[in-house]
Protein 1
Amino acid sequence: MMNTININRLYQLSFALIISVLSFNCSDILGTDPKPEKTEREIEFQITLKDNSGFMQTLFGSDKVRNAEVLLQSNLLGSSYHLYSDSNGVIKIKGIISDKYIITATRIMHSGEMQIISGTTVTNVKLVNKKTRILELNAASPANIDLEMDMVVGGSPLIISEIYACGPQGSGLYYHDKYVEVFNQSDSVLYLDKMMIAIVYTNSNTGLHYRDDPEFIHSKSIWIFPGTGKDYPIQPGQFVLCAEDAIDHRMNAPNSVDLSHADFEFYKDDAPDIDNPVIPNMIKIYQTAGNDWLIGGETGALILSNFSADSLLPFDDQFLIPYRSVFDGVEYKADPTKLDKKILNEGIDAGSTGGIQFYTGKSMERILISDSNRKILKDENNSSVDFMIINAPSPGKYH
């Protein structure tokens, strides 16, 4: 009887002890405050858009940019805010969460407005924020932020329209079906002769990035289109496919793609590389490593430039390409929200596309915004908003 009473008493004491421990606040045990609630990170501020071109002053008697479209895209949280400026050029934002944000501000100038400003109905003119591309918004930020906007006539006539880099599904480690696609965004015939495609370099061993170089792209893989001036035209609205290997990759990997009809091929003549003799070869200017033209499967950056290969500037084991010569640049990352790890300078590409895993067969394609007379693709110099992920590559055409 005595043993039974003692055992019951022991159970009661143990239960009381457990309840006491569970009633403690975790912050009391750890000596720290509880994690802040989401609402504690919410801030309120306003952005005022100012025009450096004089257009708004002529039209409305003020340099404030009204009716501008603004996109704020979170770096870490994945959230975005689509906003428009009021008649005072102001955007008021309440309840936004502290983070770094990519900001894209655009104000399309309509033909009637350009008639008033210049006396002619000039088209394809817009105001954009060319300087500030990333805002860090938190409780320490100013409550009023001024954002300058400048005039841009048209956009880049030649742009990178698609990058396929990850490799096909269900084919082991097959990765030879990579390609980059170039698109003529203009309404005129252009020529690809001697245009340059370069992979932007970062030192993966030291983590050193060159995005803050004020003048130059750094590259260790530089190729140019063949031709002497007007040998390789690209028509308005035409896609040009540049394949790592211009073969039907389905023979080796059933879930891959046929690139045997590519427009150009990256053939590395100093390595055991595949050469399709009926496809014109890109000309290798500099690439010492690898047996083929190789772009990163999950992370990388490419530029399209009209810089002369004869004028390249050596820098250690790289070459330098001036920013002013860059027609277009696209960056992609395994996690496109991690913009603090960017490779490209934000003046060329403010964001990043991607988020594609190896060997999933997915591709990165620029967004179509018009298909009335000819295709027009989105080009805000911000891959976070310019590109979308498609489930299968679409070489030489829009998906």
Protein 2
Amino acid sequence: MLKLLVTGGAGYIGGTVAALLASKGHKPIIFDNFSHARRDLAPSGVELIEGELADRPAIERIFTAARDQNQPFDAVLHFAALIEAGESMARPEIYFRNNTASTLSLLEAMLACGPRRLVFSSTAAVYGDPQSLPIEEDAPLAPTNAYGQSKLLVEQMLTWLNRIHGLRFASLRYFNVAGADEGPQGITRGEAHEPETHLIPLVLDVALGRRPFIQIFGDDYSTPDGTCIRDYIHVSDLAEAHLLALEGLAAKDRLIFNLGNGCGFSVREVIESARRVTGHPIPAEIRPRRPGDPAVLVASSAKAIGELGWQPGYTDLDEIVRTAWVWQQKRYGAGATDG
């Protein structure tokens, strides 16, 4: 059994990972400020600590108390971050403060009195507008938005701390996470951002009557249907990869992997999938492009599959959307409206 601090563990991805860790017999402890998370969606039976990632003394107290009780933490899984690329182009300063500077506080606490293993939730946005597809881990790193830059700065810090202090880390780069976790009790956790900005739950909101239409930001990209193409990975597959990366750090001190399903789907294709799955028409309206949005982002997962033995279970878009649709109906109720 491993004792693990999961920052941002009350969120969509972090909560799914924490629940999986607990189901495997590990002891995850969630550290979250609940600014973008809901307590009722945190995994049941998992200890919650409320706090700010920037509060280094608070984190050091957590590590020290565990060590003094002869129950030290074995590793940290770090999910806490702001994640909206569009917002980062309007307010880059809060992304560098929350994603980069606050992570440095966590890393300093780990070096002072905590574990020396970290699994970092990075992003394939570190690549920016790729020169070739699918994107491999040795592709140039040139973010086109402040969100991607804030994550790349953390990766660069980790490289130096690994070299100088021996901090072991795995950096996992992925794009659009989607779907809902299907556990023994059925689907109990899915996307629940407030406000919601991710495409699949927004499209499903239209099917539920919570929104009148879905907005398409740009239909003049150099893609077959003019809309952006993205790689969608199911949250359960992503959670499994985090556990495999954690295990991989026992043998290697530095791991970097892309995680995706290996093929991309356009915005229009996602909308069509939602129409098939829900049986609703889902009207769409075109809006101008958002700054910092590359035309195509699709990652190669060949390295993770080869070295970690990772095998995504959800590779069909309709299946990913189906699990999200079950969650949305469970959360809001079929035919729900904002009024």
Protein 3
Amino acid sequence: MFKSEFVALVGSPNVGKSTLINALVGSKIAIVSKKPQTTRNRITGVLTMEDSQIVFLDTPGIHAPKNKLGEYMVDVAQSAARDVDVVLFIADAKTGVRERDMEILEGLRGGAPVIVALNKIDAVDGERADEVEQSVKQFAFPVIRISALHALGLDALLDELKKHLQEGPMFYPGDMVTDQPQQLLVAELIREKALKNIGKEVPHGIGVEIEKMQYDETKKMYNIDAVIYTEKDSHKGIIIGAGGSRLKKIASGAREEIERMLDAKVFMQVWVKVKAGWRNKMSMLRALGYDQV
């Protein structure tokens, strides 16, 4: 008898949801950054075992939206929590359970079963972990202490998740770890490298579009044309850097990861264009792949 379930990872921004889903499926399918609100779409990760399959939905951090992109991100997270068998709420042992976290947990009462993953326990002592765990006791949800970064406690977390498996089909092929289109994965890897290399004032104002992605059978190489959109001319200069140095660094770092992902050589050109207010334009949001809700 085969069993399966869908699990949504929800929580505030920057608590480690993307790091956790990458660790659970054993492959990098979600980009990671120290900057909050990095994840913008719902990302599917698939873990297939001998007699069961768990489908994880990594969602954007729930926050107070300031534009249509922000509203879209919150809608993605909230809709995922409504449509799954289990909700995995990620709490941060370092920052603790804040007011917004308590509001999210309160909103999860009466719905799908909830498991709390207390993340980043490698960064705190036992007393602090006890204190944070105690703060969510009122909800009576099981709490599992983990470190997604160092793969600590993941077996215990999976054991807890397996308690909710129900007889069901294999939704995805056994060798599949994500349903994300290649072009979206490529765009996200470029955005990840941009986030790593630019200042604090720019990240939320950038988006990446893949204008061309073709495989050359003769040269056994992918040709990729990508555009990084930003909202201000001043930000364009920051992304490009002196003599194009920062853009070259972004493109080079992304190309290396894309080649590993595609298992092929990549020739990639990246441009930077200004699109004022793109985060409030539905046509731009759709063009960049933010159209799942």
Protein 4
Amino acid sequence: MKCTIKPNIQTSLLTLLRTLLILVFSVTVFAGDSEDPLAAYPTQKISTHTWAILGPKDTPNKHNQGFMNNPAFVITDKSVVVFDPGSSVQIGRSLIARIKKITDNPITHVFNSHIHGDHWLATDAISRLYPDVVIYAHPMMIEEAKAGEGESWLTTMKNLTEGATNGTKVVLPTHALEDQQIVKIDNISIKSHLSELSHTKTDAMFQIIEDQVLITGDNGFNNRMPRLDDGSYIGNIQTMEKSIALDITTVIPGHGPIGGKEILSAYKNLLSIIYEEVKTQMDEDLEAFEMKPIIIEKLESYKDWTGFKENIGKLISIAVLEAENE
């Protein structure tokens, strides 16, 4: 017996199939949008040529997919220059998509501020699309990345985000910078400011001369407590002093809101209070835990900074160790 489907049933089945396909497509698009690590963070025009995306102030986790820094980019007459693109290939792809909404210029250069992977591992996405991209960094960053720090940061980001950064590969910088070096890219001049030991031994800051913008990397924080495990209070304070003297009007910190030179002054003040108070209390033979309430009282204006309660004890201990070796 031959089985046939009546026309009205065929029409109903086709309609149902189309509806299911639309639903599947809608769910897929929604999921893709929700997985975009930059979705909640708008692109901000900072000056004539400079743009930035302000990341969250929390630490890398599954929810933020490892996005926590402030990626920036400069659009020149012919190209795009990216600074600290972020921590994963996924973030890098999202950053590229953002840039493409603004300009058709290709990304030709990337500048990395230091070795901490939340700032530079997203270079992977850029190098895949633009294999000839020139990547600049402090020579010590290149050395440390080659020696295993790059792979170590891949593992760290993967663990912190519960696999959200999977697939990211280490892409090493191609060009070592020198202190005070000016790199001319089309109509834009980028001046590098290197230090021997500040936030780390690998730090570079970038001054966009035409825009009077300074990109500090993690030499500068705003409204978020720093990590100084690899750094120096004295060195970071000196870096802030040098930065304040620069011909700049806008500061893009490694983490936290963008502003003017007041960011540099406030951060220098935070570090100075902790370090000087630690030395004072050491002269009184106080232990780190005894210093803590005294120093917290001195830091009243910083108590609302993200991570204050969680990090102030460790920051005091780090200051004690440095002061003992001064």
